[in-house]
Design brief:
Layout: H1 5-10, H2 12-15, E1 24-36, E2 42-55, E3 62-72, H3 79-90, H4 101-108, H5 128-151, H6 157-174, H7 181-216, H8 227-251, H9 253-267, H10 279-302, H11 308-335, H12 337-375, H13 381-408, H14 411-414
Antiparallel strand pairs: 1-2, 2-3
Helix pairs in contact: 5-6, 5-9, 5-11, 6-7, 6-11, 7-8, 7-9, 7-12, 10-11, 11-12, 12-13
């Protein structure tokens, strides 16, 4: 049978355009029984499935098993499930060890048996290279898994995919002593492209929620004119464009080539001499180097007078804090609590600067909305109120910054990594 195009799209990050073919067939026969109370009311529905599965390839395996599903009737207390489970356990019926019939069919017929994953050739156990590649492998898996979630427009999926791109980029950038940048730099550039294509959708999501929540919090007497209606029109007019941009990026050959390149990078890593060294030397040095970059950015930002120049430098400092945080993430399994503490402080700096940047971006958007309202003959008063609140919020974050940076730049945090 033909596979629906919608399903093709949801598995594209795994198939990369390769044709789909059946690998296992499942036949399930169901018998339904109802659990009744003393008055004959339905408490729950019990479905007994007799399942048969066989692999479609020649010589493929077969499997048979039974499953019992219990679904409570509407309004029935969830505690009844515990009672039913206890009764079933006494009869020797235990919880399934697979999340679905398909998962069990793939496992029991041998179709889903990928064998034991071995590290790439040349990677020494407990070396810097082994930790870096383990992190990369994990994040590549996350990126592939998030592809269908973004296509389905699930909550927070775009943000998570964008963060995953940054984590991968940060790892490739920070650990150039482990992996040859002649190979990794082009991959990092493509990750930057993908994050940029996702950025418009994420920025729109943040602005929609931020401005909407701020507007909802205003007293009625401060809301003059069709403010909510204009906000909705602005959102709808932009939303389809940014969603289309995201879909085009994920459907593009460029995206699929990036996924192939990431797979190749993990399977055949371009190792350098640092890959075989102990983490206490190579990875600690990489983390401290990112700290030095952040410190330089913070010094420059804090030396700027208030205004656009400082806002620009604070944004650059925020990006440097992210890079330090992600470098620490990679090293945490190897270096433990010392690098985890430094990463935690980098995250605090990043989050504060992120709140500041969100307020700066919101001010620009609110000004444009105010101009559009004025041009349409509407009152711009409420937009001005919201703009003032965002400006005050940005100034408050700047006042908090020296204290947060003081904690993050404490030499005691770095001392264990310097020895």
């Amino acid at each position: 049978d033909d596979v629906p195009s919608a399903l093709h799209e949801l598995v594209l990050s795994r198939t990369r355009g390769a044709p789909l073919r059946p690998v296992v067939r499942i036949r399930s026969t169901r018998a339904v029984r109802r659990l009744l109370d003393a008055e004959g009311g339905v408490l729950a529905e019990l479905s007994l499935d007799e399942v048969r599965a066989h692999a479609t390839a020649a010589g493929g395996g077969r499997a048979e098993w039974g499953e019992l599903e219990v679904e409570l009737a509407e309004g029935v207390h969830a505690g009844l499930l515990d009672t039913v489970e206890k009764k079933l356990r006494k009869k020797g019926i235990v919880r399934a060890d697979s999340p679905s019939k398909l998962a069990r069919a793939l496992r029991d017929t041998g179709v889903g048996d990928a064998g034991v994953r071995r590290p790439p050739a040349g990677v020494v156990a407990a070396s810097s290279g082994s930790y870096v590649l383990s992190y990369l492998r994990e994040q590549v898996g996350v990126l592939v898994d998030l592809d269908p979630a973004v296509r389905r427009e699930l909550p927070d999926a775009v943000h998570r995919m964008r963060v995953t791109c940054r984590r991968l980029r940060g790892c490739l950038r920070s650990y150039r002593s482990v992996l040859d940048r002649r190979v990794t730099d082009p991959v990092a550039a493509e990750l930057r492209w993908l994050a940029g294509e996702l950025g418009a959708a994420r920025d729109q999501e943040v602005l929609r929620e931020r401005i909407g929540a701020s507007l909802d919090g205003l007293p009625d007497e401060l809301v003059l004119g069709p403010v909510a209606a204009r906000l909705r029109v602005w959102d709808v007019s932009r939303d389809e464009d940014v969603r289309s941009r995201t879909r085009k990026a994920l459907d593009s050959p460029r995206h699929l080539r990036l996924l192939d390149a990431l797979d190749a990078l993990v399977r055949h890593p371009p190792l350098r001499s640092g890959a075989g060294r102990k983490p206490a030397r190579t990875m600690a040095r990489a983390v401290l180097k990112e700290y030095g970059r952040l410190a330089g950015r913070m010094d420059l930002a804090l030396a700027q007078p208030s205004g656009r120049s400082r806002e620009t430098e604070l944004h650059e400092a925020r990006k440097a804090a992210k890079k330090l945080r992600y470098a620490a993430e990679v090293a945490r399994p190897a270096l433990g609590k010392p690098v985890a503490r430094l990463g935690k402080q980098a995250k605090a700096v990043q989050q504060l600067l992120g709140e500041h940047q969100d307020a700066v971006v919101a001010q620009d958007t609110l000004r444009r909305l105010a101009v559009a309202a004025h041009a349409a003959g509407e009152s711009a008063f409420t937009w001005g109120v919201l703009h003032g609140r965002e400006r005050a919020g940005a100034e408050a974050r700047q006042r908090e910054l020296p204290g947060v940076w003081r904690a993050a730049s404490d030499p005691a945090l770095r001392a264990p990594l310097e020895h």
